[in-house]
Amino acid sequence: MASETQTSTTWFGSTEEVGRLRGRVFKWTCLGATVLTLFLMLVFLLYVANDALRPLSADPSWLATMGVTVVLPVVLLAGYYYRRDRSAGEVAYTALGLPIFVALVSGGLWLLFRHIVSPQEWFVLAASILVAGGLVTAHSRVRHDAAVERLVVTVVVPLLAVVGVPTVLPSLRDLLSLSPVLPNALFSLVIAFTLPIAAVVGWRVRAVRDADRDGAIAAGITVAGGLAGVVVGPVFGVHPTSWLVFASPIVGALVLYVEHVVRNDEGVSGLAFPIVVAAGIFVGLTAAQTLGFAGPDTWLDMQFLTSSTSTTPADAGIYPALVGSVLIMIVIVLSAFPVGIGAAVYLEEYARSQGRLGTVIELIQVNISNLAGVPSIVYGVLGLAIFINLIGMGRGTAVVAGFTVGLLILPIVIISTQEAIRAVPDSRRQASYAMGATKWQTVRNVVLPESLAGIFTGTILALGRAIGETAPLLMIGVSASVRVSPDSFLSRTGAMPRQILSWSTQITTEFRYGVLAAGVVTLLVVLLTMNAAAIVLRNRTQRTQ
Amino acid sequence: MNGEPALTRAAADRDVKEKMVGVLLFACAALTIFVTASILFTLAYDTITFFGFEETTVVDFLTGLEWEPRNGHYGVWPLVSSTLVVTVVSALVAIPIGTAAAVYLSEYASPKVRSVIKPSLEILAGIPTVVYGYLALVYLTPWLRDIGLPLGTFNLFSASIMVGILIVPMVSSLSEDAMSAVPDSLRQAGYGLGATKYEVSTGIVIPAAVSGIFSSYILALSRAIGETMIVVMAGGLRTSLFDPFDPFGSLAGSGRTMTASMVNAVTSDATGGSPEYYSMFAIGLSLFVITFLMNLASNRIAARYREEYQ
Fold it and tell me: Which residue windows are transmembrane per the record (chain B) (predicted)?
């Protein structure tokens, strides 16, 4: 063989020494490049946080108190989890993060109840939906085989109940709201908000533990947590209704999570972490107050979160813009998400790859990935041209903003949902078909429930992208600074990123390094909480698959 | 009894329902085509309105070197040159850093390091551009001035660097995907021939993944071209034509990109029917066409030049 004669002379290693140095330099350069961006952004964000919170403006003894009561126990506990019990560490950050994430969602609902739908209106709405649901269920029992009729009933009955026929037939909701006896705000929310949450929690616990009593206990704890505000609220100066809106979902979520951890019996000691953090903050603040230590003079305080913008930096706040952002997000959730998920289901489950329709499907698929790369400002122009100039909807309203940004994130929602659906193993579908299920039954009962976590992850990330978008809002005329919170989806609104932009044109130091930093931190806290929740959820589902 | 007909009717009924659901879902998917079509249509329609004004012609728009709506000059080149400056400088920042990060993550990083760095980069990619713009304006520009660079309050230099930082995660994650997709057998073959890790990375993995890497560059550049908030906040609005004989002078000063000009057209007091207002649609159309072609090219490159591995 030829190679035998060549071995001694032309083996690559013999003529040239293996350079270790070059390889090392390359490796460290690559690592340096990776860390550089992260490090730079970390420095930037630390500067922003420092400007917004100004921790060093506090009394040194205040810092020392908080250090002893909060930081020290947290560090010790984290060290313990890291050395001894990794799974407890995971439980620890989830148990701390979960209530924060749920509190964020409840905050959005609280703003909704305060400005858009009053508790009584919500009660009436929930009651009409309940009646409509009852009618639909009753119909499906009585006329079991009439599938088309059921589809029509499922669409028409809720519409009649909630919207009615304008000027011809009042909806059930209108009729109910005329009723002379309606429960007051607190009771409306207990019935139409806390009880449904408690029912879901109880039903879920009952299903996984297979015990009626446990389900009832879980539901009971949730209701009790919501109602505790009547007694405890006044002590902290919190209105019972506000307590209810925040406490019911938080307690409900915690009950579900604690039950999950206890049932799996893994890392139970991690549940102590949030208690230690909360108790530390409470003790620290009380101690500092009684001893008279002054806290930091932060820009990001309750005053900032609850007041509207102003020309004097000390009075400026982000509240109306916050309300606006919540409204825009609600519009997106109700419009872009169903369409995006529907499109993804079609492309993954229904679309055929052959024939003329196959070509269309391929075109749609290419088009979606291209739409994901269209600059956001172009969507702004589209929104301006279609929704405002063509259809004639109001400039800068929450609906227009939500639709415009919704179109922007639609491709992202579709692509991430497709990935989630694709991850469902084919054997599940085959099993469903083998039981005689139709395509839609398979999608509804097998594919969607299996891919739910993945869809959630993708949609939360997309929503995070949506709240930060600014350029489209500029094009459709969202107000630079609103002093009054919007009171409906059709009134002119502001938005957090838009408010940040208009503060950035102020040149005084207090605005640049104070109010603006506080606004940015508010936006980032909302966004990073959402993204972190999505990433944790994804890691968890990836592990189980 | 009439059980049989009832059963067949139920089956037929179910078929109709299945069809209706299918059509509904197809409508959702088809909406995306409608979105593209309406972007094209509305932009084209109002661009025609723009060129219908006396002071504007297509030739002037495409060849003019002055953008002064007050004096009736609508030459797009100052805007295009600023956009190109931002794109090139941000690419100079993002491409080396992003590629190196991708090589590290794909070839060198241990699973533990990856599990920290990848989500961090992802979170970085989730930070809104208005925040990046704020960082460039309020922190980066003063810092760069402190170290002695003669920058204006609004300047293209720090805006470009920020855009570069913004697109690093995009380059690194897409390139890393391409590199991770290179099958291990190729690497093993390299090691079997006595290659070092460095030689395997640069001589085998990068060439094998080059189509994916290039397509990530194109996508990132198209993102940089369409970036709006950073250049509006930190880059300013003064229109200036890039001066090739004084490149740093052009970078150190304010400059209005295409996107910034669109923002200016709606937020300034340009009245609704004026040519300046409609100029935004013409610029928007150019922007849409450029980025759409780039994205298409990126997809094509990724698909056509991909080495097929099993």
Answer: 21-45, 84-109, 121-141, 147-171, 204-225, 277-297
B174 in the same domain as B129: yes
Residues of A in contact with B3 (CB under 8 A): none
Domain hosting B13: range is 3-52
Q: Which of B17, B28, B117 sits opposite A148 (nearest CB)?
A: B17
Amino acid in position B236? G
Query: Per mean pLDDT, which range of A125-139, A147-161, A364-378 is the poorest?
Result: A147-161
Looking at the fold, whether B48 and B136 belong to one and the same domain comes out as no
User: Does B132 have pLDDT greater than 70?
Assistant: yes
Considering its fold, how many domains does chain B have in total?
A: 2
CATH number of the domain enclosing B91: 1.10.3720.10
**8 A C-beta contact, residue A318 and residue A304:** yes
Q: Which of A37, A40, A299, A516 to mutate to test the interface with B (most CBs of B within 10 A)?
A: A37
Nearest CA in chain B to A529: B123
**pLDDT value for A12:** 52
Q: Is residue B310 part of a domain?
A: no
Q: What is the per-residue pLDDT across B284-302, written as a single tens digit (0 to 9) for each?
A: 999 999 998 998 888 888 8
* ipTM (interface predicted TM): 0.90
C-alpha distance across the termini of chain A, in Å: 51
Radius of gyration for chain A, computed over Cα atoms and rounded to the nearest angstrom:
28
| Judgement on whether residues B266 and B300 belong to the same structural domain of the protein | yes
Residues in Cβ contact with B19 at an 8 Å cutoff, skipping those fewer than 6 apart = none
| Helices first, then strands: H and E counts in chain B | 15, 2
Cβ within 8 Å of B, A 394-423: 407, 410-411, 414
Residue B11 belongs to some domain of the structure = yes
